[in-house]
Amino acid sequence: MTQIDETVSRSRKAAMVVQMLLAEGQRLSLSSLPEETQLRLTRELGAMRTIDRTTLLQVAAEFTRDLESVALTAPGGVEKALHALDGQISPATAARLREEASKSNGGDPWAQVIAMSPSDLRAIATGEALEVCAVLMSKLPVAKAAELMGLIPGERARRIAFAISRTSAITPDAVARIGAALANQYAGTQAPVFAQPPVQRVGAILNSVAAATRDSVLAGLVDEDAGFADDVRKAIFTFPDITTRLAAGDVPKVIRNVDNADLVTALAAATASGGQDAESADFVLANMSQRMADSLREEMGERGKVKKSDGESAMNAVVAAIREAVDAGEITLVSTEEEED
After folding, report:
1. Closest Cα partner for 267 from 295, 290, 289, 248?
2. What whole-number distance in Å separates Cα of residue 286 and Cα of residue 131?
3. Highest-confidence range of 158-162, 169-173, 316-320, by mean pLDDT?
4. 8 A C-beta contact, residue 199 and residue 205
5. Which of 23, 121, 232, 240 could lock 276 by a disulfide, CB 3.0 to 4.6 Å apart?
C-alpha cells in the first residue's frame, strides 16, 4: 500500500476530509472552532487542486483510525467546564474558579467588558450605579468612552462625569470585583488603578465628544464642583486651542498623521465658522510649507460647504492626532500656566 506523502500537512489532510464530506452533501458546523483554525482550514481548501484517489482514501483511513482511538472528549477550558456543570455546582464555587482561571491565565474580566460595543455598554451606563459607571468610563479607551458618553442622556452623562472625580481612592480589589461582576452579567492590580487622575480622564473623554455634549457636561460640573470643573476645562484641548497651545514648529509633525480628507474638511469648516476656529486654521496653514498650504487652500475651495457634523468630526480627528503625538512624546503642548505667565 502506497504511503501518504509525508510533506502533506495535517491542515491539508483536514481540508481533504472536509472537502470529501462536503462533496457527499454533509452539512458541517465549523463555527465553534477557533478563528485561526477556521482561517487555516479555509485557506487550505482554497489552495487545494486535484487530489488523486489513492491519497484521498489513505487520508480518509487515517482520519477514521484517529477517530476510533478517541474514547472520551472533555469540554476544554474552565469556562466550557463551568458551562457543562451549570446548576451542578454553587455560584460561589463557579465564581472562585473563574477568578482562579483568570489569574492563572493572566486574564482580566475587564478585557471582556472593554471589548463590548458602545451600544451594548449603554445598558451598563444607564442601568448601573453612578460609581460603577465612573469606573467603567475610566477603564475604557478614550475614544470608546467618548462614543458611549454620546449615547447617554445629558443629565446622566453629567452625573457620571462628576462621579469620576470621586474614584481616586477606589481600591484595586474593588475595581477587579466590579469588572468581574460586569463581565459575568453583561458579557488585582497594583495601585494606582487608573493611569491618569480623574481630571485628565474626564478631560480626555470630553476632548472627543461633540461640542454640545462637552458644553453641557462642563456646565453641569460647575454646579457640582466648580474647582473640579475648572481643572477639567484646563485639561481639555479642542480645535480653538491650537493657536495658543500647539507650538508652531510642531504643526508639520501633527498634520502628517492626519488623513488628508479630514485635514481639508477640518480647515474648510473652521475657516467658514470664523472666530477661534478660523484662527486655528490660519495658524496651521501658516506653519507648513507654502506649497502644501497652497494645495490645501485649493482643495478647501473645491470642498465647498461642509456639514456641521462632518466639520466637527474632522476637527476632532486633528485634535486626536495632536493628542496622540503628545502621548507618544513627540510634542509637548504649551500649558495654560505658561500662557498666564
Report:
1. 295
2. 46
3. 158-162
4. no
5. 240
Residue 93: all three cell numbers together: 464555587
C-alpha distance from residue 46 to each of 19, 41, 147, 238 (Å): 11, 9, 39, 50
Helix axes 118-127, 142-150, angle to 10 degrees: 70
Structure-derived torsion over alpha carbons of residues 197, 202, 205, 208, reported in degrees to the nearest 10: -120
3-state secondary structure the chain: CCCCCCCCCHHHHHHHHHHHHHHCCCCCCCCCCCHHHHHHHHHHHHHCCCCCHHHHHHHHHHHHHHHHCCCCCCCCCHHHHHHHCCCCCCHHHHHHHHHHHHHHCCCCHHHHHHCCCHHHHHHHHHHCCHHHHHHHHHHCCHHHHHHHHHCCCHHHHHHHHHHHCCCCCCCHHHHHHHHHHHHHHHCCCCCCCCCCCHHHHHHHHHHCCCHHHHHHHHHHHHHHCHHHHHHHHHHCCCHHHHHHHCCHHHHHHHHCCCCHHHHHHHHHHHHHHCHHHHHHHHHHHHCCCHHHHHHHHHHHHHHCCCCHHHHHHHHHHHHHHHHHHHHCCCCCCCCHHHHHC
Phi-psi label, residue 238: left if phi above 0, alpha if psi -120 to 50, beta otherwise = beta
- pLDDT tens digit string along 283-327? 999 999 999 999 999 999 998 889 988 998 899 889 888 888 887
DSSP 212: H
What residues contact 193, with CB distance under 8 A and at least 6 apart? 138, 167, 170, 171, 172, 175
Classify the C-alpha dihedral 320-322-327-333 as positive or negative: negative
Distance between CA atoms of residues 48 and 16, nearest Å = 8
Distance between CA atoms of residues 170 and 131, nearest Å: 10
Give the global pTM.
0.44
First to last CA, the chain: 90
- d(CA 27, CA 312) in angstroms, rounded, equals 50
